[in-house]
Design a protein that fits this description.
Elements (H helix, E strand, L loop, with lengths): L2 H20 L11 E5 L4 H6 L4 E2 L9 E2 L4 E5 L2 E7 L11 E5 L11 H14 L6 H8 L9 H16 L17 H12 L14 E4 L2 E4 L3 E10 L2 E7 L6 E3 L8 H10 L2 E8 L6 E13 L4 E4 L16 E3 L3 E13 L29 H26 L1
Parallel strand pairs: 8-16
Antiparallel strand pairs: 1-4, 1-6, 2-3, 4-5, 5-15, 6-14, 7-9, 9-12, 10-13, 11-12, 13-16, 14-15
Helix pairs in contact: 1-8, 3-5, 5-6
Amino acid sequence: MSRVKKLRIGAALAGVTVAAMMASVTPASAEAATGKIVEPVGEEIASGKGYQIELSNGPENKRHFDTELFVLQVGDKRLRTYCVDIYTDILDGAQYEEANWEEHPNQSTSFKKNSAKINWILHNAYPEISAAALAKNVGGEFEGGLSVAEAVTATQAAIWHFSDNAQLNLDNPTPKNKDAKNDVVKVYKHLIGDANKGIQNAPKPVLTLEPTKLTGKPDSLIGPFVVTTTATGITISAKLPEGVIFSDKDGKELPKADVAQKIQQLDKYEFYVKVPASVATGKVEFTVTGESEFSLGRLFVAKGKKGARSDSAKFSQSMILASSQKVRLDAQGSAEWGTTPTTPNETPAPQPKNNDNELANTGASVLTPLIIGVVLVGGGVAALVFQRRRRKA
């Protein structure tokens, strides 16, 4: 076996070792905003109740659906949502998490291709604008004015038209409320018609920190920690041991107020934890906090169910925010160090290409696998010699 071939075997074994080590690194992204559907109370009931609608398409036994504005509780805030998953039930106690538009879990949904149309409806219908303002935008006469219940009904029906290809039965749209027929159909046609040009931009992330945990060693920079946010009122809290500081990539000290200010000014900002040689072991836990608007069009799906899935019918139905509200969010991170760090977070510097028919430095030592290889080869040779001696005997 040539020396180069032996080195390649050693490098391959080293690669396995590095892969196993990297598998223990804490996932880099912070958790998405989470919440749960709760029962409406007080004014939420009156301002969010619509009428039952009838569809002209779909399964014969699934053509009647109640409409309403749901209440999604995120932290201490109660946000209004519409359904974007008509044939999926809401499961009791289901937890929700924020997701990108393309992560809607239902494989058969038309939500993804029509998300811009749905977003336009959210910006131009109830409750973003009042029932009276919606009626004015639609134009024409309404029977006693457009009621809140009619506005909710027409808005939800229009959203389902785009999210699930659900067609409202224009001859009998509200079977239990015949008097609402004309008003509901008029608003529904407006929301799905030529006026709807779509709003393409998906909502931006609120507050993310990645990675959430890193491990290093004394006399080094641990990082970078990268914060991406559109939040305002950013603060960062941490109890730093004596001599340990936040810093930039060059090791220059950044007071906590400066870190918060930089995060506030930039869409994305990175910082480090600088540990002096005199602090042999320790840990810093910090929290980045900010206030952000949960804006129209943010998608929430059953927790852990992001992405198109064949079993999506087993999940709680997906929701989309129909109202904006300021909420307080935070992202937590930590840096830990010791004389023998267990979680590598330093990326090896690139090495020049080796032209001597030798392997380039991969950043991982091949010494250990080579020693193992030598031991195994030595054992094989010893066994062979022993076998030959037995044959001679």
